[in-house]
Amino acid sequence: MSEQQPEEQGEGKAPPRTEGxxxxxxxxxxxxxxxxxxxxxRAATWIAAAACFWLVYTRxxxxxxxxxxxxxxxxxxxxxxxxxxxxxAVMMPYSVFFFLVDSHAxxxxxxxxxxxxLRFGHMLPIRASAYILSLVNEQVGKGAMTxxxxxxxxxxGWETLSSMIFLGLMEVYQLLMFSAIGVALxxxxxxxxxxLLPLDWIFPIILAVAAIYLPIHIAWFRAGANGDEDGxxxxxxxxxxxxxxxxxxxxxxxxxxxxxxxxxxxxVYTVALELFQVQASLGQMLAFLPVIFLAAALPLPFHAxxxxxxxxxxxxxxxxxxxxxxxxxxxxxFNALIGVLFLPKANKELFG
Length: 352
What we know:
mainly alpha, 13 helices, single chain, about 0% strand
């Protein structure tokens, strides 16, 4: 598909645009006082995370007791039986593959809605450096992209953030779409895993609501596509600019661009579970993994939602909760290592 934005007139020559840029006297995040509700929310997320860990621990402890062992001994035996060499041989190439696919999808969206002159080679170091910053905070990681586009393409930060929100929405819908396919092909697996939670009812309802919402969402934003971007109303906010400019084909293409990462994850997690002596099929992973990734996106510390869901979906293997922590920790650390390798180039792109 051809790009919709006009070519840049030369880096650094266009006058800076001010739409979406806060005034210089606006309070920064560090200066603004936190709302009491933010503290309530933070406390609630930590309590919920602690509850998830406690539920997983009790299930591991029960499984260990059946083998006359402690929970700690049970987990030590579980990790000792893994083939770590083959596991690394699977995980490292997939991490590099994920980085390339993720960078490509991000690059396409930025070219559509923010900077048509952006080259893929320039996107790689910026996207990689964001992985380092994401170790601290995901929103801080997006700041590298925002800074680069502001400095090199005069793109206001709110417009860049709107593209990141667009990407985030389509990541959610990609997970829902593939999980719907997996559940449709293996619905009996979801029924078998619905002992603790009625997932065979909860998940179809979520899918139905998501399927109804998306066409309404697209139609509402397309109705304002030719309107005044400085006009009143939620639809005209700079933060939602990407949705006003996106056509239905853009939504579909982002799903297709990002699909190789999820399909690769299905294969990688199936193989990794086998290396940890946990029996799992490709059908199970296609049905369950997108749901687990959605649970990981919940605002809970240590991805506690995904930790609990692993245990719920694999009741015969409560130790998969610990397995999920190992997988996630390796993935974010290896991606950060990729970022370190690109850091000199990223610094050059950002600061000249």
